[in-house]
Amino acid sequence: MTLTSLRQQLLAGDTTPAAILEKLAADITTRDHGQTGAYLSYDLQSALAEAATADLSLPLGGIPIAIKDNINVLGQPCTCGSKFLENFISPYDATVIRKLRAAGAIPFGRMNMDEFAMGSATENSALQITRNPRDPARIPGGSSGGSAAAVADLTAIAALGSDTGGSIRQPASHCGVVGLKPSYGRVSRYGLVAFASSLDQIGPLTQTVEDAALLLQAISGNDPLDSTCLDAPVPDFLSGLHDGVKGLKLGIPKEYFGEGIHPGVRKNVEAAIQHLAAQGAEIVEISLPHTEHAVATYYVIAPAEASSNLSRFDGIRYGHRAAQPSDILDLYKKSREEGFGPEVKRRIILGTYVLSSGYYDAYYSRAQKVRTLIRRDFETAFQQVDAILSPVAPTPARKIGSISGDPLQEYLSDIFTLAANLAGIPGISIPCGHTDYDGGSQLPVGLQILAPHLGEAKLLQIAKVAEGFDGGE
User: Fold this and answer.
1) How many CB atoms lie within 10 A of CB 140?
2) Tens-digit pLDDT profile for the chain (473 aa)?
3) Measured between alpha carbons, how far is 472 from 274 in angstroms, rounded to an integer?
4) Catalytic hit among 167, 335, 413, 429
5) Which of 86, 119, 204, 385 is the most buried (most CB within 10 A)?
């Protein structure tokens, strides 16, 4: 079920793109519908039409890729997990979709997510619940929970997600798959429905590190349709994948190993670090002193940008429109009241507040200054080390509904991931073992690896070695 193995089977004539699609559709029917709930929809007939003309000589020729439901695919729904866009059909392809098709891949399936990517559990989806395939009583993580759950459940070979504060890496950790957030500017955001424009990035969720490198290769590169997409060379992410870690310096930030980490998470992550040391890496303790301010900084900047970006959903141009409003202002109010869920409303209100007259300097302006300090922490650290290692999340996947009505607890679950978005650096989650948690079965734990900006090649090289480790508990 990996990209690499399926490509070999396709080239050998052992299977066909149509056979792969039909097998996936059968598995979705038997395992996803009414159980995992990762798929919001899929169009088998359109995918089979693409499969009929697939060029198997291309890097991803004939292979279906699942797509998070905030990335536009021509003629397919793009709901963002929201009632506001429940009946919206995309009129164009996102740049990453055009690049996938250019590499021969077939976009297949719309994956569930927290509404407008606001959440860390996929509990905030207005459309359905997604469950963790490792334990159906638990969350898959979020906001790319559908993408991670489908890859873990083997109802998707690989998937695209988006990461604004950990939304690829955290569900990858909870579901036991590989999740990569590229550097800001490495991958075009054109066609991604914006949450926080200075933080969002599209990236792969896969079974293996090699598959992540293949998918990242396909979607990377400059795009004139996105002014924040960098005109930087795209290296061959596969060429150095097996170079090992001998001689590399890997940093352990003391701020990421304090109180609040579940003992099983700590044990597995520390064992994975020792595995990398045994393979020749030098482990160095470092400090990221402004880490304590990262959560507060993120939850000023991200809602501020969200309140601006989501102002386009007004009931006028597209999406939900309230019936029989008394005037134009009533139309705006009712459409947004009926269309948005509670977490989206909470963040719009918070963002509008920190941008409002009298509070802009006290909150938003100050948060941007602290963001600069956080970025400088990483720049200083990367003068000493080649990469940074940490947990992805403080705990394994919690039970569905266990912290309902406590948004602060949810926000704190991203404490180890969101600083990478503030700094614009790449990060990856690699499965590194399992542990008991909250009376549950053995649940996956993820190791996070962070690298300097545009350092995805080195990141994947280290991740490949970490991938060989199977747990300290």
Assistant:
1) 35
2) 899 999 999 999 999 999 999 999 999 999 999 999 999 999 999 999 999 999 999 999 999 999 999 999 999 999 999 999 999 999 999 999 999 999 999 999 999 999 999 999 999 999 999 999 999 999 999 999 999 999 999 999 999 999 999 999 999 999 999 999 999 999 999 999 999 999 999 999 999 999 999 999 999 999 999 999 999 999 999 999 999 999 999 999 999 998 899 999 999 999 999 999 999 999 999 999 999 999 999 999 999 999 999 999 999 999 999 999 999 999 999 999 999 999 999 999 999 999 998 899 999 999 999 999 999 999 999 999 999 999 999 999 999 999 877 888 889 999 999 999 999 999 999 999 999 998 877 999 999 999 999 999 999 999 999 998 876 54
3) 10
4) 167
5) 204
Total domains in the fold of the chain: 2
103 and 57 share a domain?
yes
Full domain range(s) for residue 225: 1-287+376-473
Out of 68, 99, 334, 464, which one is annotated catalytic?
A: 68
Assess whether 143 carries a catalytic annotation. Answer: yes
Q: What gap in Å lies between CA 348 and CA 342, rounded to an integer?
A: 10
65 shares its domain with 170: yes
Note whether residue 366 is domain-resident.
Answer: no
Whether residue 108 is found in the same domain as residue 44? yes
Selected catalytic residue, list 90, 120, 143, 390: 143
Active site residue 335: no
Measured CA distances, 51 to 7, 20, 47, 218 (Å): 14, 10, 6, 18
Cβ 317 vs Cβ 364: under 8 Å = no
Task: Please tell me whether residues 201 and 96 are part of one structural domain.
Answer: yes
Same-domain check for residues 216 and 344: no
